[in-house]
Structure prediction request, 217 residues.
Amino acid sequence: MRILVVEDEPRLLRNLAKALREAGYAVDTAEAGDDGLFKAETNDYDAMVLDVMLPQLDGWEVLARLRKQKRTPVLMLTARDGPKDRVRGLDTGADDYLIKPFDLDELLARLRALIRRSAGQVRPTLSAGDVLIDTRARSVTRAGQPVVLTAREYAILEYLALHRGEVITRTELYEHLFDESDDTLSNLLDVHVFSIRKKLGRELITTRRGQGYCIEP
Ligand code: CA
Prediction:
């Protein structure tokens, strides 16, 4: 899953990006509203964390312009605890909001929920055959036995399972799993998919030649 964080306070931005990467997300960042809007329009993010008070364009303006074209789930960060602010955020098309200062675990939990909801999933556990994926713990079991995946393998599996029944192109996987700071050498999709199949069964992920990968419904 790939997240965009738009926040002009350098320290908070660094800490957020670090925490999100540690939680397994690919993360892009922007420090001003116009740059954030450009990235959000250019890339397909699984979610966006958007500060309200930003230079160039403020968060409201970024959100309003983004909503003319995209449904990317947006979590707003607001410094002011005013009910008017929250109403405005939700009216403009924000999916959720947090008041600064916020608890990092709460931010992570809300992001997970936003991403699940936007994929039409309500429950935090995903399943495919005898494979169970717990998106809270980022853990996987097969027939009840824990299976250890690398961060990359987990990210690929979770994305495919969240979009079960859809054929996901390689381009889409790259877009959603790797951020702008990733080097291309670690991006060997086939190698990761081969390894997932070895651990969880060959039949779990189908290759549709010329199209992409799929976990069958
Ligand atoms: Ca700010």
